[in-house]
Every structure is written in structure tokens, then in C-alpha cells.
């Protein structure tokens, strides 16, 4: 399968692209899901954030976001890595429902 077809299939997991969020809105949305206030987003927190953003498969998106964004490989997204997470979410066109 060609990479273009794979990317198109992966973009299917986003429900809507009607109202894209700004980078600041995405950053605030993700950080609002830091439930324990430790400044790190773990997979469960990311899963809830992607659910709020309309992901059809939020567990998958959370895992892929960690793979793409977790520079120090500690399994969480910290404040230094949030820009990578926002870039990932922007690439896939996340918006509020």
C-alpha cells in the first residue's frame, strides 16, 4: 500500500475538519487534560483529550501522538514536547465537535 493511501486512511479517524483549532487552542485543550497536574500527559490523559477533539479511535491517536511527540522516551508528553504534540494534532486537522 502506498504511503499516500495509508495517510488518507489514517486521517479517517478524525470526525470533522470544519473548525480547525489554533495551535494555542490545541495546546490549552491538551494541558486541560493533565488531570493530576504533574505537567506531563500520559496515554490515558491523551486518550481523553483526543476523545474530546473527536477522534474515532482515541486510544490509537494517543499512542501515535506519544510515538511522534515523546522526544525523551519517558512515555509521557511534557511541556518541552507539547509543540510536537500540537504539530501532530494540527497535521491531522483536529477540531471541536
TrEMBL record:
<protein>
    <recommendedName>
        <fullName>EF-hand domain-containing protein</fullName>
    </recommendedName>
</protein>
<dbReference type="InterPro" id="IPR011992">
    <property type="entry name" value="EF-hand-dom_pair"/>
</dbReference>
<feature type="domain" description="EF-hand">
    <location>
        <begin position="21"/>
        <end position="56"/>
    </location>
</feature>
<dbReference type="Pfam" id="PF13499">
    <property type="entry name" value="EF-hand_7"/>
</dbReference>
<dbReference type="InterPro" id="IPR018247">
    <property type="entry name" value="EF_Hand_1_Ca_BS"/>
</dbReference>
<dbReference type="GO" id="GO:0005509">
    <property type="term" value="F:calcium ion binding"/>
</dbReference>
<keyword id="KW-0106">Calcium</keyword>
<dbReference type="InterPro" id="IPR002048">
    <property type="entry name" value="EF_hand_dom"/>
</dbReference>
